[in-house]
Amino acid sequence: MKNEEVLEKVNKGVYLPLMEEFYTIQGEGFHKGTAAYFIRVGGCDVGCHWCDVKESWNAETHPPTAIEKIVDNAAKYSDTIVITGGEPLMWDMNPITKALKVKGLKTHIETSGAYALTGSWDWICLSPKKNKLPEGRIYDEAHELKVIVYNKHDLIFAEEQAAKTNADCILYLQPEWSVRDKVVPLIVDYVMKNPKWKVSLQTHKYLNIP
């Protein structure tokens, strides 16, 4: 297949730059502790300096893969499918979520919201970043808001983002892993004073699983 044909399929969302796919335990947020199949899509220009999957940023290093193949693999393992990145909304998510729904699978996304929301989702985890703020509509659609806390100023950012979400959105503060010893006490104190927030931990790292 010619490069132009591949690019066209990627642009239409029928191929996606697939970094990795794996069956594991969801480690973060509302669904932590539950089994899920993760599809990690390459490509991200948000550029968080503390990102622990920087190898996902360059989409060109990840093979364009037909969504039929991705969906067939996913269906073998779980009824809950989490699409993450990178930043998955750089690509049209309508084709893959439609294909997942045809198989009766639940669709979850983890996104910064930096691009327009596409796809049909049972659960949207919005994790906004200061570098590139979310597109407006996703605030109305998000089921959970997960703000990564690297320093105390991120708590101000968290409140700014929470003010834009819908009334049913669950609010989480999650310590950035590399500074967790410093920020966990800060988060605990903040949540106790502001109980509309909950603490999210990267429990998969404590469990030493992907």
From TrEMBL:
Annotated cofactor note: Binds 1 [4Fe-4S] cluster. The cluster is coordinated with 3 cysteines and an exchangeable S-adenosyl-L-methionine.
Residues at which substrate binds: 25-27, 40, 84, 210
GO molecular function: 4 iron, 4 sulfur cluster binding; carbon-nitrogen lyase activity; magnesium ion binding; S-adenosyl-L-methionine binding
Keywords from the UniProt entry: 4Fe-4S, Iron, Iron-sulfur, Lyase, Magnesium, Metal-binding, Queuosine biosynthesis, S-adenosyl-L-methionine
Catalyzed chemical reaction(s): 6-carboxy-5,6,7,8-tetrahydropterin + H(+) = 7-carboxy-7-carbaguanine + NH4(+)
SUPFAM superfamilies: Radical SAM enzymes
Cofactor section: Mg(2+); [4Fe-4S] cluster; S-adenosyl-L-methionine
Pathway of action: Purine metabolism; 7-cyano-7-deazaguanine biosynthesis
EC number: 4.3.99.3
Signal peptide: none
One BP annotation, GO: tRNA queuosine(34) biosynthetic process
Domain of life according to the entry: Bacteria
InterPro entries: 7-CO-7-deazaguanine_synth-like, Aldolase_TIM, rSAM, rSAM_sf
Location of the Radical SAM core domain: 31-210
Protein family per UniProt: Belongs to the radical SAM superfamily. 7-carboxy-7-deazaguanine synthase family.
Function: Catalyzes the complex heterocyclic radical-mediated conversion of 6-carboxy-5,6,7,8-tetrahydropterin (CPH4) to 7-carboxy-7-deazaguanine (CDG), a step common to the biosynthetic pathways of all 7-deazapurine-containing compounds.
Subunit structure, interactors included: Homodimer.
Protein name: 7-carboxy-7-deazaguanine synthase
Organism of this sequence: Maribacter hydrothermalis
Protein encoded by which gene: queE
